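STRUCTURE:
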């Protein structure tokens, strides 16, 4: 492996929704898809069961980080859902510690599902974190990909 192709050992995930940056997150879970398989048995054929692909299913994406000033942007995005519902396009960029983009995913028709704020407990002093969960309808092909 050459020096220019080092794996992204330490990354952050920068999230933008329709061009508005929500900031960077430390963890990102749920990027993926699954082909839903429907088994079909054929009469007179006892050797196997047909496995037919039916649709793609996308899990929700969960992003977490310590509280920052960008938390207000997330709150504003969630609050905008009370005045009208509009699905948006999102981009998640994995970046190295020095800001070099390693990978990028475009998500179609994003909807905020859940925001979880910090737990304040004086007996357990931990970093105050937040988690957002978003649903989407699939991935967007990037130009040149």
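SEQUENCE:
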């Amino acid at each position: 492996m050459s020096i220019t192709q080092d794996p992204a050992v330490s990354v952050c995930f920068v999230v933008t929704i329709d061009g508005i940056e929500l900031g960077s997150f430390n963890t990102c879970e749920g990027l993926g898809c699954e082909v839903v398989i429907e088994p079909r048995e054929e009469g007179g054929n006892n050797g196997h069961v047909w496995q037919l692909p039916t649709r793609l299913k996308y899990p929700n994406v969960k992003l977490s980080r310590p509280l920052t000033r960008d938390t207000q942007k997330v709150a504003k995005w969630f609050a905008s859902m009370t005045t009208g519902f509009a699905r948006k396009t999102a981009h998640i960029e994995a970046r190295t510690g020095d800001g070099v983009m390693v990978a990028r995913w475009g998500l179609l028709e994003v909807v905020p599902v859940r925001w979880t704020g910090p737990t304040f407990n004086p007996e357990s002093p931990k970093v105050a974190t937040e988690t957002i969960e978003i649903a989407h309808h699939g991935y967007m092909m990037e130009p040149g990909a």
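REMARK: Strands lie at 11-17, 20-25, 27-29, 34-40, 50-57, 61-66, 88-96, 101-116, 129-135, 139-140.
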